[in-house]
Amino acid sequence: MLDIRGVTKSYGTRKVLTDVSFTVGDGRMTGFVGANGAGKTTTMRIILGVLSPDSGTVLIDGVPVTASDRRRFGYMPEERGLYPKMKVAEQLVYLARLHGLSPASARRNTTDLLERLGLDARAGDTVESLSLGNQQRAQIAAALVHDPEFLVLDEPFSGLDPLAVEVVMSVLAGFAAQGAPVLFSSHQLDIVERLCDDLVIIADGEIRANGSREALREQHSSPRFEIRTAGDTGWIRSQPGITVIDVAGAGDSTFAVFEAETDAASQAVLHHAITLGAVHTFSQQRPSLATIFKEVIA
């Protein structure tokens, strides 16, 4: 488990992080989101030891992280950092060897990753000859080739087409399934919502929201419900404690969206609907990640 505790960082008189604390659990995909300049990259660089905090600490399983520990990290910076004139496979083998892998293991990992990321046909090409999307895949491969135990990825989905996004999501989920804590930032909130188990939202250098995806959706949910039935739903307007937002449909498929003042009021709607006929669906509307993000940074 990776813990960031009370991390504060300033550049001169400008404070960029204030008491930043959150946890990246083993086998958990943690999405790290915020606007440009919110402090995501600075936080990641402190985790990796590229920057030092003014105060606070980074721990692994309760123990301060060391330089040796950081060799177990896989880090992908937002800026591409591969050698442009070096061939893709040669570069990955070289990076794996720098992390202590044997030549055979480095070659095996390189071959496996290039295949999983759809770059096997480009193994002998130089990085600079690749499209921007394939350069991004190669950068991701460079972060993973040494079998890291922790992943810290800054905008890994930037520049990827929808098919490549699916491929990368699958590869990262595979590392998490093996127990690796995975921290990734992204401006693509729809991807974060699909992939993350936990979510950290940062704004102006401060953590504004932190928790599991479902817990945050529950926390920020409004008392708004949707019901779809086989009969008319206009009667809901007359129910006590109910404000109807929308009613539509006709015949054997109608729905209504309404807000309830209490749980009892929403349940009364459901029970009455059941007495009138078939109820196809009844659910509380949950906010999207984009909605939560806008709410907490406002």
Automatic annotation (TrEMBL):
Tell me the InterPro entries matching this sequence: AAA+_ATPase, ABC_transporter-like_ATP-bd, ABC_transporter-like_CS, DrrA1/2-like_C, P-loop_NTPase
Gene Ontology molecular function terms on file? ATP binding; ATP hydrolysis activity
Instruction: Read off the SUPFAM superfamilies from this record.
Output: P-loop containing nucleoside triphosphate hydrolases
Q: Which UniProt keywords apply?
A: ATP-binding, Nucleotide-binding, Transport
Family membership noted in the UniProt record: Belongs to the ABC transporter superfamily.
Return the PANTHER family for the record.
Answer: ABC TRANSPORTER, ATP-BINDING PROTEIN
What is the name listed in the Swiss-Prot or TrEMBL entry for this protein? ABC transporter ATP-binding protein
